[in-house]
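Form 7-S
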Amino acid sequence: MPTPSLPDAALGVAGKIGRNFSVVTVVPSLYFTLWVYALYASGAWTHEPSLGKLRDAFAGWSLAGAAWLVLATVLVGLFIHPLQFPTVQLLEGYWGPSRLARAAVKLRTAHYRGKAQRIENRLEEHGDGLQDKLIDHLGAGADKLSTDEWQREMDKYLLEEADEEALSHALAEDVYAKAKSRFPGRARMMPTRLGNALRAVEDRAGRQYGLDAITVAPHLALIAPESHVAYLQDSREQLDLAVRLCSVSLLATVITVPAVLTDGLWLLLALIPYTLAYVAYRAAVSAADEFMTAVSTIIDLDRLALYRHLGLSRPQTTHQERRRNAKLMLLLQNEPADQAEPEVSLTYAPEESPDKAPRE
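Output:
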């Protein structure tokens, strides 16, 4: 029996692990592998890139060449897959405790605090401008309106009678309110756009119930219905794909620059992966919003099931729920052992007897 060649073995390996490789891993790995191969085939490492050599290299591909590509893609995928979590952490702005890292974090965080403050100022300016327009429209009775009446008058004014200046204020207010929502509070500010987008939604998700999203999300993922978990996983895959495309594009840029550094205008070739990295990073920010929206939705729908699995009774009011969850968060957050144990006491719901348990 003939011994299989390395390309044949590569195809076999790819077939076995391919079921575990999703598009999140395959697409970035294939893109990176093809880019590096294109640099090599065009002769970029020894002289100016040649499009003719690149065309000939791709035109002469065989089944063995395709198998080598599969093998290289699998190896790259196996390498970048376990690096997903530290990559996300890096793009979020967790850069370590070194002096240089702390200085960079301080500088970038100050930049985003200033940016958030400018957005807040513009939001207030347009909000005040819109209120002034409504006051001029309503006349002397405007200061006697309740909050609900004021909102109804504002809605009616914008719908029927507002002039262009008022509508411009309303549009700008919506734009700046959306921009403001991407930033957490000043004390929670992160040094990157992605970090701020994730943290802003983390701080809001579950807050109306007294729940911390980061604490309860792993628990909910284990007990939520399959359709809910699938929705959560789809949102997470979009974020992971964008992050991986960003990271491999940055790596491709680093590899491309020395290959074409002395080749004149060919240095502009490095702008291609760099631009893709930028686009992928902005896509990751949008995907972070979608993922955290999914987390918020799971909390809304499945938090009562979480209480049941933890042996707690169903709260009768949202006020009662928030009070109890303040204690529950202390128990679930698992503080380090060297800290004082929280004085927390929760009452478990009585266990249902078999004859009272609901029948399947």
